[in-house]
Amino acid sequence: MLPKEGPTVTSPETRDPSPAVSRAMGILRALETAGAPLTLSEIARDIGIAKSSASNICQALEHEGMIQRAENGYRLGLRTAEIGAAFAAQFNQVREFFAVVESDPLLRDQVVQIAMLDAPDAIYLARHEGRAERLGTPLGSRLPLIYCAVGNAMLLAMGEGELDSTLTASSFTPKTERSVTTSAQVRAKVLEGRERGYAIDRGESFAGVHGVAVPLDPWQPGDPRMALGVALGASEADDETVAAIGTALLAAAERLTNPLSRRPD
């Protein structure tokens, strides 16, 4: 006779402390990824739960404004935008960003963005629209650090250990014919950027769009790495313009540095 199997034991390391919260987060991620409304059946299938369970969670999320009904199902709600804005506003440099950019005669007429580190990506937090052309990356979007200017700028500020681990975690999936394909190429860009003081993306993220960016020193301990960058069309990105924008960004970064953290000369 075969011995009776005992109950399945779940270790503390693998046990989900709050399945309902995890499922709710799964629904939000599914709607974010879809970029379009999802039906209740699609949500249940994506999350791997019963349709009745998905319905109960969606009702709770809808009540809190995290999702809302659409003609063909559910989509993200306004509350998610409010939370995103509140997250960005926690950081002093984001709060001061717009005033600093508006006060600079060159930067005020550019598309200027501020992004933070979430290795191996950069996440865009705020954007100043100084021109009509839609050159900027949508807020909340991610781009690989190894390609975009703001990402390269954050790499400039990293020590060798952090740079090594970031490159190891990066996936070299070229976005354009100009995208780097090896860690050695990234390291070469980092060395060049450190010499000049700012990073340059010559169409590695989007064909025809170049970028110039500088790292921002954390305002206080515990703040994430951030960078300040400008997006411009390839036809405008001559050496003189890029250098002028780089200089303006360095000055703006200085103004976005906590005066109490500056080292005395």
UniProtKB/TrEMBL annotation:
The keyword Membrane does not apply. The keyword Phosphoprotein does not apply. PROSITE patterns: HTH_ICLR, ICLR_ED. Keywords: DNA-binding, Transcription, Transcription regulation. Residues 79-262 form the IclR-ED domain. GO terms for biological process: negative regulation of DNA-templated transcription. Residues 18-78 form the HTH iclR-type domain. GO terms for molecular function: DNA binding; DNA-binding transcription factor activity. It comes from the Bacteria. InterPro entries: GAF-like_dom_sf, HTH_MetabolicPath_Reg, Tscrpt_reg_IclR_C, Tscrpt_reg_IclR_N, WH-like_DNA-bd_sf, WH_DNA-bd_sf. Residues 1-20 are annotated as: Disordered. PANTHER family: HELIX-TURN-HELIX TRANSCRIPTIONAL REGULATOR, ICLR FAMILY, HTH-TYPE TRANSCRIPTIONAL REPRESSOR ALLR. This is Transcriptional regulator.
